[in-house]
């Protein structure tokens, strides 16, 4: 599919942490992540995906103050990722000057390898009123392979996922806060993005109630064929699966949709 495989691990144990995000409670949410990463590490996890805005939720009124904690939160996650020999990905509020972003941090064994600022802000949850949109995509080489990042509503934009795959991602990690009643969209779209790009998709959602929103969980791990390798129910938990990179290469060779694309006719993506 791409010569930029960034191949590091043939068999990768990877997981999503799903929990109920307590609005504004940075320390409480961080403790859930400490416990969850430890549980994943005990089961051999080398890659962990956390939900969207996991440190505090969309606490818009206090977001600038809460975002001021983010550098310290990232430092703590970096220390945990080093201790557990893991790549950890999840979105947090980021303050840059006066601007706030919904930013996914990719931390690899103690080092921040990249940041991705959400491109598509979800106006039904008023995200566009309080946050700025990013303007760049991110695919990074890590100790577990080449990873592309996306955040929640981004899932509805196949062009982004195609771009990440064109840039060599073999795993795409999505942090989300995706509420009821749109579980069917979540299930179909995570699967579609995996199948159409022949990539692994790890999609971490939150669960529980925050204000008027009720989150159904269903964090997912999908194979490049679209098989559901693991799926959470609606309670706090971690889900894990083994990602077989050789099987991914074999499948891409068997169904060569990538080579058969016709961007000369219909696409500007090259
Ligand atoms: N936080 C989000 O981006 C929510 C996206 C969502 O719920 C959707 O249906 O799309």
Automatic annotation (TrEMBL):
Short name of any one Pfam family annotated for the protein: CN_hydrolase
Highest rank taxon of the organism: Bacteria
Protein name: Nitrilase/amidohydrolase superfamily protein, class 5
Family that this chain belongs to: Belongs to the carbon-nitrogen hydrolase superfamily. NIT1/NIT2 family.
InterPro entries reported in the protein's UniProt record: C-N_Hydrolase, C-N_Hydrolase_sf, UPF0012_CS
GO molecular function list: hydrolase activity
Keyword terms, alphabetized: Hydrolase
Transmembrane segments: none
CN hydrolase domain sequence ranges: 12-245
Provenance organism: Syntrophotalea carbinolica (strain DSM 2380 / NBRC 103641 / GraBd1)
